[in-house]
Amino acid sequence: MAKIKITQVKSGIDRPERQKLTLKALGLKKMNATVEVEATPQILGMVRKVNHLVKVEGEQA
Prior knowledge:
Layout: E1 3-8, H1 17-26, E2 34-38, H2 41-49, E3 54-57
Antiparallel strand pairs: 1-2, 1-3
């Protein structure tokens, strides 16, 4: 599986609880935090739900 880097670029404050929990599940705790994860269908689905809050690098479409 390909790896992708996910960086949180916007705050989770004033977002629905579901989006906050998705950020937490991705391993993002603070602004500008970056995590490197496998590009599984589950991870890509979570990224799609919070794509307005994160930046993704190295994604294999």
